[in-house]
Design brief:
Rossmann fold; eight-stranded mixed β-sheet; 23% strand
């Protein structure tokens, strides 16, 4: 995912430095070239050899170190960098960068880097809220730096408050958002539905399905990483809501219809990946008595067909993509859905295919348009999401 990319991790003197070796490992696993800068104080928390072993690159500390190839090292590294993350960022380093002070390898290189720079403050709660530190952070924002809001919880000294640096997986998501993919969807609005809706039978029971929300979330994340303004309207999901996406949780199919229909007109691409419960119970006085006696044969009515509504109310230039989960005649049934619901593309898969469907981390999808169909091999849902977006971006042009 990050092959050919270079991430510079600038580590200052904070106990939170212990998290950064794992971040470096995670980036390397994705194929990224990782360069680490450290202040002298940071070396008191983490030995530079740790980073050198994980990244395969020399950890740079001393601006005047002669043990490297002939070049102006901070300038050479600045030219390579696709992104710089200052994590943990101490109050001292934040203050120096905000004031234009470049007196060591870390601050000198950060000043020389023209790429996106992200700051992850980590310090005591009172220090973080010191008006001088806050003023310095605001100054960095005006210069284009992105500042990550610290987490709240127990700090290193035992106090509770905000000032904790977020976990490595969160820091990784900030980096992926910036450099993982080309921003070919910048300026586009994308609406995705995901997860399973639930239709209440009574205060305890409901009708639903096995949708995990993984495919819809993968699509939302992929669109976000490619620069789109993404809204995810979701029912129940087995995974966490994705970062950097406007998430709108809903309960019933009618709730989802209301949220989707209210937003649809302003969207460039709409992808309905949610598995909506097709029926909702009709509760009457008589079947309430039946349920009390143990008889669950209550009348049902169909819920609103969201995809059909979207197709009937499609705006000019808008692209609509639906999903079709079938148990038989997958291609035939999905081609009919493409026409009857006025979609631009249908992503069809079968419950009978191993490695496809609900809850799996992989999927086997056939992409169907008016021009024909393309059957994809088994792949991760993240890989499938980008292929789907590739096809949809071609349609929108």
């Amino acid at each position: 995912m990050l092959s050919g990319k270079t991430a510079v991790l600038a580590v200052s003197g904070s106990i939170a430095a212990y998290k950064i070796p794992n971040l470096a490992r995670m980036l390397k696993k994705l194929g990224c070239n990782v360069q680490v800068l450290m202040t002298q104080n940071a070396t008191r928390f983490i030995n530079p050899i740790t980073f050198e072993s994980l990244t395969g690159n020399k950890c740079l500390i001393d601006t005047f170190d002669r043990n490297f190839q002939y070049s102006v090292e901070h300038v050479a590294l600045a030219k390579q960098a696709d992104i710089v993350m200052i994590a943990p960022a101490s109050a001292n380093v934040i203050g120096k960068i905000a004031s234009g002070i470049a007196d060591d390898m870390l601050t000198t290189t950060v000043m020389a880097c023209p790429c996106k720079k992200i700051v992850a403050p980590a310090m005591n709660h009172n220090m973080y809220h010191n008006p001088i530190v806050q003023d310095n952070l605001n100054k960095l924002k005006t210069f284009g730096y992105e500042v990550i809001t610290p987490d709240s919880g127990m700090l290193a000294n035992g106090d509770s408050g905000d000032g904790r640096m977020p976990e490595e997986k969160v820091l990784l998501q900030y980096i992926l958002k910036e450099i993982a993919f080309e921003k070919d969807l910048t300026g586009k609005k994308v609406l995705v539905t995901a997860g399973a809706t639930r239709e209440s039978i009574d205060p305890v029971r409901f009708i639903t399905n096995h949708s995990s929300g993984k495919m819809g979330c993968a699509l939302a994340v992929a669109a976000m990483q490619r620069g789109a303004d993404v809204t995810l309207v979701h029912g129940h999901m087995d995974i966490e809501e994705p970062m950097f996406v406007n998430c709108v949780p809903v309960g019933s199919a009618e709730d989802m219809f209301r949220e989707v229909s209210g937003r649809a007109a302003s969207q460039d691409i709409i992808i309905k990946a949610a598995a909506v419960a097709d029926y909702t119970p009709v509760t009457t006085a008589s079947n309430k008595i039946k349920k009390a006696d143990g008889d669950m044969s209550i009348p049902l009515k169909r819920t609103t067909d969201i995809l059909r509504y979207l197709g009937e109310h499609k705006e000019e230039g808008q692209i609509i993509c639906g999903f079709s989960m079938e148990t038989e005649n997958v291609l035939e049934n999905s081609q009919k859905k493409l026409v009857s619901k006025n979609c631009d593309m249908i992503c069809a898969n079968s419950l009978s295919s191993e490695g496809a469907g609900f809850k799996s981390d992989t999927n086997i999808i056939t992409l169907i348009t008016k021009d024909g169909f393309d059957s994809l091999e088994k792949m991760t849902k993240e890989q499938a999401a980008h292929i789907i977006l590739d096809r949809l971006t071609k349609l929108i042009r």
